[in-house]
Design brief:
The protein has 21 helices and 19 strands. By secondary structure, it is of the alpha+beta class. The strands form 4 sheets. Strands 1, 2, 3, 4, 5, 6, 7 and 8 form an 8-stranded mixed beta sheet that branches. A 5-stranded mixed beta sheet has the order 14-13-12-11-19, with helices on one face. Helix 19 links the parallel strand 13 and strand 14.
């Protein structure tokens, strides 16, 4: 009977997940009718504006669209980007503004680009807009929702770090690591920590909540010297209550992000379970936290961070106990305890990586080869930095906080140095992409391997190779398909004219801006695992004629008036491709002329255009 009591949440979660998938498949989200409508909009700034130096980013709630003869009330949220200047830097959470803009979708519909629209939709945001003109701040309205209050507290704590002369990369790492504020993280820092396998410490999640849990637990038990302080039933309940309150306070000051809420809820259920019943089933606790989160926010199921969090925890539960017994020294000497601590870090790192490895390949097409070495360095560093940051924040008004802040600065400098040293090691990363069937075959193999390591069943030795054989077969079938592909991709970008010519597993990039082209083509190149043979520069924002698949195309990007009727004759082309760098009104003018003459044309603003040809004849 006791075993049956531990099953329900696992069963409920197993039933809940397919129901969520089916529901959203049958009921896709609808979009507001104000998207793509230019006008003057009245909006309430709901998030604390973030200044990255060049732009100001925030989120606003749509209130109304202001027309000449009426004001139409609206609902929904929009992500706003302002050109950073003296006016936009005055924006505050709670400001009501009126601005002229055109709400639009963020996606450019280029091959295998990040689906930013879906990401925003899952966070309750319907569209994006860029405001480079003047706007009016109508009035200020105090927002007192829990998340708004949490964001304001978070901003005040970040300002304490700034006032203690913590700047640059150190401030970016410290704000992200301790408070979950990623405003100061630039692309270079993200790339370095991702390549080294340390990106997880920059997203406040289970590791950080676990550090706080451990710190409070050690304080309540006299730093482990008086374990009896936790074993007494009444004291145990009181200590658990204190731990839970502290965890939720930490979740609050870090902005109540989904990853923190997940971890805090998981540890809360674990603490309650261990207090009331020491034989609590860990799988049931994990399933209970996931079930509750999905009950209130079903869209979390499709969040990459949600999937990575629970796969990492599952990997730790599956692999840590059997691997922990290997190479453990039973002596009480200092060296033995040190070795056991390092070995525990190695085992947990390998176990967590085993859980997230398939998802890392599927979503990011990248894996860090030195993740074990990185975690041996960064996890103890994260403990030290968080423990040092606490007195800097709590004693900020006292003089003693200044030398502690200097020590904290030195710790952050050392951490950045170590991470970048690992990143610069040869073969620090490997790139490899997989499809959905390959993902499932990898997960099947990992699950069978975990069961075999734990139970050593003979029949599993026969089953283990099967998912691997399926994985390899799918990979070779995919490589055969990629090698047969011959196509030209014309990218949708207002910043550059970019083309990718694919010949099997190799490609050539033609562009008038190599930095922009690199960013545009990277997702497709990584997914297809292509080798770049050359990057050829085109004249900037020029009109270019190309021949491909026995047809002539004209890439038109001139924003000046010309005789559109004679374009096809002058350039001897069959189809005119209107590039995204054209202004909207110029594009409308050209389309009108081309339709009158019945000239074939393609509008790049609608998304990338792919011209396929099995026997390509080049450009």
């Amino acid at each position: 009977m006791k075993r049956l009591r531990t099953i329900p949440f696992v069963v409920l979660l197993a039933l809940q997940i397919p129901c969520i998938v089916l529901w959203f498949h049958l009921h896709p989200p609808t979009e507001p009718d104000w998207i793509n409508q230019q006008g003057f909009y009245k909006m309430l700034i709901t998030d604390v504006p973030q200044d990255n130096g060049k732009y100001i980013n925030t989120v606003a709630r749509m209130q109304a669209i202001v027309k000449e003869d009426s004001i139409i009330r609206l609902s929904g949220k929009i992500r706003l980007t302002f050109q950073a200047d003296s006016l936009s830097r005055q924006l505050q959470q709670g400001d009501i503004i009126i601005a002229q803009l055109t709400p639009a979708h963020a996606n450019k519909h280029n091959p295998h680009e990040f689906d930013y629209d879906t990401y925003l939709k899952r966070n309750g945001i319907d569209a994006t807009a860029f405001i480079n003109k003047k706007f009016t701040i109508v009035k200020h309205q105090k927002i007192n929702t829990p998340i708004a209050i949490a964001q304001r507290i978070q901003r005040k704590l970040v300002n304490i770090f700034i006032n203690k002369d913590i700047q640059g990369e150190n401030l970016a790492i410290l704000s992200a690591l301790t408070l979950g504020d990623k405003e100061f993280l630039d692309a270079d820092i993200r790339r370095a920590y991702s390549a080294a396998g340390a990106m997880h410490i920059l997203a406040v999640s289970g590791l950080h909540v676990g550090i706080i849990y451990t710190a409070i637990f050690f304080i309540l038990t006299g730093f482990g010297l008086f374990p009896q302080m936790y074993r007494q039933k009444k004291r145990k309940i009181a200590n658990t209550l204190i731990i839970i309150i502290c965890l939720w306070i930490y979740a609050f000051i870090t902005g109540l992000s989904p990853s923190v809420l997940r971890s805090t809820l998981m540890l809360t259920i674990l603490a309650i379970g261990l207090t009331l019943d020491e034989d609590t089933n860990t799988w049931n606790i994990i399933a209970a936290s996931a079930f509750i989160i999905l009950l209130f926010d079903p869209l979390s199921l499709f969040s990459v961070s949600f999937q990575l969090s629970y796969c990492a925890v599952a990997g730790i539960i599956l692999f840590t106990p059997p691997l922990q017994k290997i190479f453990i020294l039973k002596s009480s000497r200092f060296f033995s305890r040190l070795w056991n601590g390092i070995w525990s870090l190695v085992i947990v790192s390998i176990a967590a990586q085993a859980g997230v490895f398939p998802l890392s390949l599927y979503y990011f097409h990248l894996i860090s080869n030195y993740f074990v070495l990185t975690n041996i360095v960064v996890i103890p560093a994260a403990y030290i930095i968080i423990f040092t940051a606490i007195p800097v924040l709590t004693l900020s008004s006292l003089t003693i906080s200044l030398p502690i802040a200097k020590l904290l600065n030195s710790e952050l400098t050392a951490l950045n140095f170590l991470v970048r040293s690992i990143e610069n090691l040869q073969f620090s990363t490997s790139e490899f992409s997989i499809t959905l069937p390959m993902l499932f075959s990898l997960f099947t193999f990992i699950l069978l391997l975990a069961i075999y390591i734990r139970y050593h069943k003979l029949y599993l030795t026969c089953l283990l190779p099967l998912p691997l054989i399926l994985f390899i077969s799918l990979h070779f079938a995919r490589m055969k398909q990629i090698n047969s592909e011959q196509q030209l991709i014309i990218y949708n970008s207002s910043k550059s004219n970019t083309l990718l010519l694919q010949h099997g597993n190799t490609c050539t990039i033609y562009t008038d801006s190599i930095p922009v082209a690199t960013q545009l083509t990277e997702p497709y190149i990584k997914y297809k695992m292509l080798k770049i043979t050359d990057k050829i520069e085109l004249p900037e924002k020029s009109t270019t004629r190309i021949t491909y698949s026995d047809a002539n195309y004209l890439l038109y990007s001139f924003n000046r008036k010309t005789d559109y009727d004679k374009l096809t004759d002058y350039y001897k082309c069959d189809t005119i491709i209107l590039m995204s760098s054209l202004s909207k009104w110029r594009q409308t003018e050209i389309i009108s002329a081309l339709q009158t003459n019945q000239t074939p044309y393609i509008v790049m603003r609608n998304g990338a255009h792919i011209i396929r040809n099995k026997k390509a004849n080049g450009l």
